[in-house]
Design a protein that fits this description.
heterotrimer, A alpha/beta, B alpha+beta, C alpha/beta, A: alpha/beta, Aspartate Aminotransferase, domain 2, 7-stranded mixed sheet, 15 helices, B: alpha+beta, OB fold (Dihydrolipoamide Acetyltransferase, E2P), 3-stranded antiparallel sheet, 4 helices, 20% helix
Chain lengths: 499, 127, 443
């Protein structure tokens, strides 16, 4: 084992604790809570509820407080995290999750605020919504915004619904949405939910939107195009103005998936280059923590033409300067979520914007693009670059050279774990041939040191592919658990513990 | 791998064994090889009507889903229930692991499909 | 900028190695007319202390330290301290979606435990790893029922939270799925005979909430019977998760949509919360959202992986069961820890306290002249509706000075109830505050 890992510089093996399921430590009579005594008469639940009473809480756990601390602390040590090291995942923007964000989100007046508070008693929260809204509108170059969607996919749905409502109001029954073949899976999934037909738009050989194909496919039946810019290859669409023109000439709308905003903030604004509506991912560009899979937040910003259709309620400023909420939007698409959206993430995103200011935001974007280009420069001799266009904040390689030795992108990703990194995004975007994509986004949060360790690891693995591919094919070797038998897990899924 | 001579084959890698106006349908060895470990097969109900070259079900591996296209038009007369609990049978022997049986509405459609020889040539060209 | 780990020398060195003279060259692929040359008009860069001061000022413009007697889809419960201690660990807070199982077993195992506990509480066979909240969950549940039955109509009770019904309407607007709403009786429960008349052989599902928006517990078995008789599915929404500690779980349902917000997730002015969808085993392949399954590695060790991913958008794209990608992972962890803390005994004792507090409160209100507690005749959990002579907003205004936030006026969504408000009483409201609130119905 020490032989195959002789080139690993970033990590060393370390003892970490085993831990079973919490149910396996439960025994009747153990408890982790104590409630304050009732100061009102106790009700006889059998009398109060009758047949609706529950007698038995089955196999809910019964453990002490300290066992809970041990249990989850041990579990946490099995996770990789941004706090430990770089996540090169493409289009995920795994940047530093600042801790001041966590503190301000927990301030009692905000954390304990009930969402049904009348506006007069919720001025602080409404002010946060307003200041964040204004900042995001400015960053995007748009006219209006909703903070209600709970995540990127939810934002996409909202944005596409705005488009649909717009055409309905115009008396036009446009049935199609164009989606590039390089798009993230949520794009076509979303278009279908909104009742559109998805029409695929092939990329050109450079991996960009094929404007000739777009011109051919753009008809009066197409409501819009969903584009990601920079695209999922990390490349800025060089003909974005032409794309917008082709759409607008036939009355169509340009939707932008804002997942890659980390390449643009403070340097270019989507509203300026012809985007009509877009969503943002606060859990990507604006540093709110990923938390093992969420929560996120997916605000949707739009131009004036779409403003009447935004979800309600909308925050408005009264004549006396105080804030209120309005439901008086006759053309609104309605609600996309209860209450105001993931407010906790709004707080965190605003704190991030304030910590940066305009200069910090610009420098952040510059460092993000610089880091990705540094990686590209240092790896382009050992990993094939399938599309030669310049990279912005992320770089996409392919496994072509390594595949000659039987090593694929998924295998390299597993071996990268032995080197102490989380894998990059494998096999996406789909336009990289042979499902061979190696998609890397370092973000601005990575020091040169971490980037150099990553580059070194990737170079070692490229060498291993030539010298002894089996090391890679059997990776990871150093993790707590080996590769799982996913086929069996999916054939006969076991989705809960049973006694 | 020998492709049974009495079967006919589609470009989407399904096979059909036609006997009179009855047909048995499955996917080829080549198909199961490219899919990898099969974890689930979604099939229509008995009585469903299928059309030539239209989707009749799906086959899933861990990380991918593929559509199943009917080689011919007809009505489903039987469904292989074994595949519900043991989809891996398709990996073990794709030419024996039948998926649906059909009553063909237009038996001449089968003549347009590839022979075993043509199919083998086709998959070699694909490579 | 203090988050950026580069010195000016680092940047010079790196730009040199890349082979460009300045950072601007790396942005040259953006057409010149779109490159911004001015500062964005956003707040200037602030010190950490300034950020905290600013948010503290905002927090001071809210209701800190007030007693909260509002429910209606968001519930104030005491949050045990160790929840934040644990979720603040960087390995939980800053980790990604667990696609790489070998280095995400912490997240995967905790979600497997979450799924198990939700099944135990709801009586379902399988639960997902979370959805955004109950409002979007209702839409997901209805769409799932439509996929399962092949039918395209839904019947929804008016006793389902109005916001849930609004989100459902928005989400399915383009799915050709008409929704019929049915009313409620004097006991606060959905009108079963109206429901029966509304359900046809084209109905994909009936949707009820229990405890419902008025706090009343529905007769889930009866509703299930009449839905199933016509081949429709039953979707039951559980908005106040604490109720599951003492109220019989909706085992007759086909799909349960819930919010686990009550399980330690802060009110937070409306989000993030913790939606979940649970169902019977035979429906699992039509479920939206992530699922964690048990698996064994090459050496036979038990662990956990993302399962049945072929349902999801990253594989199925336009044919996915939902477009959901990011969910509410960290909130599910909050709920998991909370459920461990209270556990088998505590969930029941906590629910019992809620029942007792609300029962006491209802009696206090009922004893006031000019006040009437509606919907007697069916059991309730921790919410109830009070009809008053004075308007709910005037009553709530009186309570402002007493640092009590009063019940939710129902005039907007239930104008037929006149001057009525929905009051909630969890274990967090003191006897003293309850008495003060009740007395405030009269000036």
């Amino acid at each position: 084992m020490s032989d195959i890992n002789k080139n690993v510089k970033k990590v060393r093996p370390h003892i970490n604790q085993n831990e079973g399921l919490i149910f396996e430590k439960s025994s009747t009579g153990k408890r982790g809570y104590k409630l304050a005594p009732l100061d009102v008469p106790a009700v006889d639940s059998a009398a109060a509820l009758g047949a609706a009473e529950r007698k038995d809480l089955g196999h809910m756990p019964a453990v002490s407080e300290f066992e809970i601390i041990r249990h989850f602390t041990r579990l946490s040590t099995w996770n990789y995290a941004i706090d430990l090291g770089m996540y090169p995942l493409g289009s995920c923007t795994m940047k530093y999750n600042a801790r001041v964000n966590e503190l301000v989100a927990r301030l009692e007046g905000l954390a304990e605020a009930h969402p049904h508070l009348p506006p007069a008693q919720a001025q602080g929260a409404l002010r946060i919504l307003k200041v964040l809204s204004d900042a995001l509108i400015e960053i995007c170059g748009m006219d209006a915004i909703t903070l209600q969607p709970a995540a990127g996919a939810h934002g996409e749905m909202t944005g596409v619904m705005l488009i649909r409502a717009y055409f309905q109001a115009e008396g036009e029954n446009r049935k199609k949405i164009l989606v590039p073949d390089s798009a993230h899976g949520t794009n076509p999934a979303t278009a279908v939910i909104c009742g559109f037909e998805v029409e695929n738009l092939k990329s050109n050989p450079q991996g960009n939107v094929d404007t000739a194909a777009l011109a051919a496919q753009m008809t009066g039946d197409v409501a819009g195009l969903m584009v990601t810019n920079p695209n999922t290859l990390g490349v800025f669409e060089p003909e974005i103005h032409k794309i917008a023109e082709i759409l607008h000439a036939k009355g169509g709308m340009l939707y932008m998936d804002g997942a890659n905003m980390n390449a643009l903030v403070g340097k270019a604004r989507p509203g300026d280059f012809g985007v009509d509506v877009m969503h943002l991912n606060l859990h990507k560009t604006f540093s709110t923590p990923h938390g093992g899979g969420g929560p996120g937040s997916g605000p949707v910003a739009c131009k004036k033409a779409l403003e009447p259709f935004l979800p309600t309620p909308v925050v408005v400023t009264k004549a006396d300067g105080t804030l209120d909420v309005s439901f008086n939007r006759p053309q609104s698409i309605g609600r996309v979520k209860a209450f105001y959206g993931n407010f906790g993430m709004h707080i965190r995103a605003l704190a991030y914007i304030m910590a940066n200011g305009p200069d910090g935001l610009r420098m952040t974007t510059e460092d993000a693009v610089m880091n990705a280009n540094y990686i590209r420069k240092k790896l382009e001799d050992v990993y094939e670059v399938p599309f030669s266009a310049p990279s912005m904040h992320e770089v996409v390689f392919s496994h072509k050279k390594q595949a000659e030795h039987g090593v694929k992108t998924g295998d390299i990703a597993k071996r990268l774990m032995d080197y102490g990194f989380h894998p990059y995004t494998t096999a996406f975007p789909l336009i990289v041939p042979d499902h061979g994509a190696i998609m890397i986004e370092p973000t601005e949060s990575e020091p040169k040191e971490e980037l150099d360790l990553f580059i070194d690891a990737m170079r070692c693995i490229a060498r291993e592919a030539e010298e002894d591919a089996s090391i890679i094919l059997n990776a990871p070797h150093s993790t707590r658990v080996d590769r799982f038998d996913e086929a069996s897990a999916n054939r006969k899924p076991v989705l809960r513990w049973k006694p | 791998m020998a492709y049974p001579a009495n079967y006919r084959y589609t470009k989407d890698h399904e096979w059909i064994n036609v006997e009179g106006d009855a047909g048995t349908v499955g996917i080829t060895h080549h198909a199961q090889e490219s899919l990898g470990d099969i974890v689930f097969v979604e099939l229509p109900k008995v009585g469903a009507v299928v059309e030539a070259h239209k989707q009749f079900g799906t086959v899933e591996s861990v990380k991918a889903v593929s559509e199943l296209y009917s080689p011919v038009s007809g009505t489903v007369t039987a469904v292989n229930e074994e595949l519900a609990s043991a989809p891996e049978k398709v990996n073990a022997d794709a030419h024996a692991a039948w998926m649906i049986k059909l009553k063909l509405s237009n038996p001449s459609e089968a003549n347009e499909l590839m022979s075993a020889e043509d199919y083998e040539k086709y998959i070699n060209e694909e490579k | 900028m203090r988050y950026l780990p580069k010195s000016p020398d680092d940047r010079i060195a790196m730009l040199g190695e890349i082979g460009v003279k300045s950072i601007d060259e790396l942005f040259s692929s953006i057409p010149a007319e779109y490159r911004i040359t001015r500062d964005l008009n956003v707040p200037r860069q602030m010190a950490e202390s300034e950020i905290i001061d600013w948010f503290r000022a905002r927090a001071g413009e809210m209701t800190a330290g007030h007693a909260i007697m509002l429910g209606a889809g968001a519930y104030q419960h005491y949050r045990p301290v160790i929840i934040d201690s644990l979720i603040s660990r960087g390995e939980f807070l800053t980790s990604y979606t667990p696609y790489q199982a070998e280095i995400a077993q912490g997240t995967l195992q905790s979600i497997f435990e979450f799924q198990t506990m939700i099944c135990e509480l709801t009586g379902m066979d399988v639960a997902n790893a979370s959805l955004y909240d109950a409002s979007t969950g209702v839409a997901e549940g209805v769409l799932m029922a439509a996929r399962l039955t092949g039918r395209m109509e839904a019947v929804v009770a008016r006793t389902v939270n109005p916001q849930f019904r609004q989100v459902l309407a928005t989400t399915i607007k383009h799915q050709n799925l008409p929704v019929k709403e049915t009313g409620y009786g004097d006991n606060g429960r959905v009108d079963v005979s109206a429901l029966e008349a509304a359900v046809t052989d084209k109905t994909a599902c009936v949707v009820i909430q229990s405890p419902n928006f008025f706090g009343t517990i529905e007769d889930v078995a009866a509703v299930a019977g009449l839905a199933h008789k016509k081949g429709a599915l039953l979707v039951v929404v559980v908005s106040e998760a604490v109720s599951l500690g003492i109220v019989k779980p909706p085992v007759e349902a086909d799909i349960v949509v819930m919010d686990a917000q009550s399980f330690g997730v802060p009110l937070g002015f409306g989000g993030p919360y913790c939606g979940v969808l649970a169902t019977k085993e035979k429906n699992v392949r039509q479920m939206p959202g992530r699922l964690i399954g048990q698996a064994y590695d090459k050496s036979g060790r038990r662990g956990f992986v993302l399962a049945l991913s072929t349902r999801e958008q990253h594989i199925r794209r336009d044919k996915a069961t939902s477009n959901i990608c990011t969910n509410q992972g960290l909130m599910a962890l909050v709920a998991t820890i909370y459920m461990c803390i209270y556990g088998r005994e505590g969930m029941r004792e906590l629910a019992q306290q809620n029942l007792s507090k609300a029962d006491f409160a209802a009696k206090q209100f009922a004893a006031q002249t000019g006040a009437k507690v509606l919907f007697g005749g069916a059991p309730r959990f921790n919410e109830f509706v009070v009809q008053t002579k004075d308007s709910p907003s005037s009553i709530n205004e009186r309570l402002r000075g007493k640092k009590i936030v009063g019940g939710l006026p129902l005039t907007e969504h239930y104008p037929e109830l006149g001057n009525a408000a929905l009051w909630c009483c969890t274990e967090t409201v003191s006897k003293e505050n309850i008495e003060t609130a009740a007395k405030a119905v009269n000036a």
